[in-house]
Amino acid sequence: MTRRLTGFQPTGHLHLGNLIGAMRPLVAAQDRPSIAMIADLHALTVEHDPQQLRANTLQVATVLLAAGVDPERTAIIANSQVPEHAELHYLLESATGYGEAARMIQFKEKSAGNKGVRLSLLTYPVLMAADILVHDIDQVPVGDDQNQHLELARTVATRFNARYGETFTVPEGIRPENAARIMDLSDPARKMSKSAPSAAGRIGLLDPPEVIRRTITRAVTDTVGVVRDDAGNQPGVTNLLAILRACADREPGPLTSYGALKREVTDAVEAVLGPIRARYAELSEDPGHVRKILADGRARVQPRAAETVRRARTALGLLD
């Protein structure tokens, strides 16, 4: 049976795009072996607050549980708690060229004009490859902005296998069915993101109702005045319709104004996020329970990860 890994970064707060594009498909695919990985090691590539990182990691784990991820079927892990991730990261650097890492788009963007670039920012795509390969993953849900990193993982795995013998499963990228691409409400030309310079176009999964209502009310539309799908000429309205379909799980009825559309979207989003907020509040009362779930997840995945690292070490000629 195919094994699938979905990763989440504990930098900033998870938003509606994460829920629709990643969490829902993860929950829907829990009939197969799956791992939900919180990539806290990735946060070390830039300046960060250690206490905030620790809190964010626990928050992401709690939100995953609140959104319906079942830890009995899906192992929830933090990659920093599985040391095989870091060990395989170093081993894979033996099969990766400097140029391959340096041409990654995210490295170019984040390092441009920045004199304090950390070495980990350059090598972080190799860590991403290790995150995938260490668990013998067959499928990785990816968006357009992640294709380059997945292709590097595939390239490194294929090269390693050819050079040192069959060691790694070569993963394939998949696009989850019915996972709408949710755009920024203030700039519908770009994807909703935790790293956007402004939070005005983002709906956080834990935002209170009044914040959700205000964010949607201020969403960018146009002067056409007709509620319809037209991504080329009406990207804002098209995005609101996509959110409505995803949250209400139905085709919108006739809507005569943008105000009516925004009210429908607000009600649909709140109907989805209200129960998640409530469940999150319950789970937050017992952080020890969430920590235990992370520990249980680590215990479940570590034997396979250790075996993968053993194969890699042997293939490279390292002593047991």
Automatic annotation (TrEMBL):
Identification of the protein by name: Tryptophan--tRNA ligase
Gene Ontology terms for molecular function: tryptophan-tRNA ligase activity
Keyword ATP-binding: yes
NCBIfam families for the chain: trpS
Gene: trpS
Family to which this protein belongs: Belongs to the class-I aminoacyl-tRNA synthetase family.
Family annotation (Gene3D superfamilies): HUPs, Tyrosyl-Transfer RNA Synthetase
CDD domains assigned: TrpRS_core
Record InterPro entries: aa-tRNA-synth_I_CS, aa-tRNA-synth_Ic, Rossmann-like_a/b/a_fold, Trp-tRNA-ligase, Trp-tRNA_synthetase
Enzyme class: ligase
Domain of life: Bacteria
EC number, UniProt record: 6.1.1.2
Keywords: Aminoacyl-tRNA synthetase, ATP-binding, Ligase, Nucleotide-binding, Protein biosynthesis
Source organism per UniProt: Paractinoplanes aksuensis
